[in-house]
Amino acid sequence: MNNRMAGKAETSAGRYEPCSGGDRMRSIAIILDEHRSLAAILHGMLYLVRAIKNDRATPDFRLFAAMVYYIDAFPERFHHPKEETYLFRLLRRRDPTAGPLLDQLHAEHRSGEVKIRELASALKRYERVGGNSFEAFADAVDSYATFHWRHMRTEEDQILPLARQHLTDSDWDEIDDAFAGNADPMLGAKVGDEYEALFRRIANLAPPPIGVGPER
Ligand SMILES: [Fe+2]
Question: What separation in Å is there between the alpha carbon of 18 and the centre of ligand 1?
Fold first, then answer.
């Protein structure tokens, strides 16, 4: 698909190449790819909101609901648990100076849950009431996207370099193994494929230039 969401092009991610030495640190490539997927959905939402604001599109609530579901379920149930349970835990052990930053990221994971609830209820209200409630929905999308980009940038610019510097080979074995789903199938590639399928469904619903769905 030659579109922005399928290409996952716009993101703060992508500064790290996958480890060239075999499969070690494969988890870093997975984290960056998951950030790219999230960033693509956030860019898509912002684009659609702007198009509605400029009278270039009518709202597609089925698409918005799928996007909100994705940015709710994918980080909360799949992405953050892997970071917290494996990467953050082992980095805290190897580099105690990273503690305050890891505390901040943990706290952001929790406040992200609140923010996504606010976004979901703003969307429900916009669908039910319409009119002026669009502004509150647009603000919620903007606020969540800004919050989450900043969060992902901190992980990429600060946590991943520290992890590369301080984690041992056996730490990476444990992290990579977990990211492959060998420790918990709910965090593995099979579940990842289900989110990938949802991502493709969203790309198929979204109009050009962000997806390949019908024009609205
Ligand atoms: Fe992350």
Answer: 16
Centre of ligand 1 from the C-alpha of residue 135, in Å: 28
Question: Which protein residues have their CB within 5 A of the ion that is ligand 1?
Answer: 155
Task: Kindly give the distance from the C-alpha atom of residue 33 to the centroid of ligand 1, in angstroms, as a whole number.
Answer: 10
Quote the ligand 1 centre to 58 CA distance (angstroms): 32
pTM (predicted TM-score): 0.85
Cβ neighbours around 76 below 10 Å, total = 14
Q: How far apart are CA 67 and CA 44, in angstroms?
A: 9
> What letter represents residue 175's amino acid?
I
pLDDT digits 0-9 by tens, 179-207: 888 778 888 788 888 989 999 999 988 88
Q: Which domains does the chain have, with CATH numbers?
A: 24-205 (1.20.120.520)
**3-state DSSP: the chain helix, strand, coil percent, rounded to 5?**
75, 0, 25
